[in-house]
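B., you asked whether I could sanity-check this one before it goes into the benchmark set. Here's the sequence:
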Amino acid sequence: MSKKQKEKTAISINDKEFNIEDMTSEQQAMINHINDLDRKIAQSQFNLDQLIFGKNAFVNSLSQSLET
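And here's what the prediction gave me:
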């Protein structure tokens, strides 16, 4: 493949395929925002899972200490 025939990055939006390189800079920026928000949502979910687990551990520990 020559330098001019670079492989394009395809994404699927609403069951349609689009090439990122064919999008406007504004559309590409929106894709970047969506990707960043997906990462932040996943990180927030991970943190929430840890917080819930930690809270449950303290509740269980308190319950056990009150039973003795």
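One thing to flag: The longest strand covers residues 10-13. Otherwise nothing jumped out at me.
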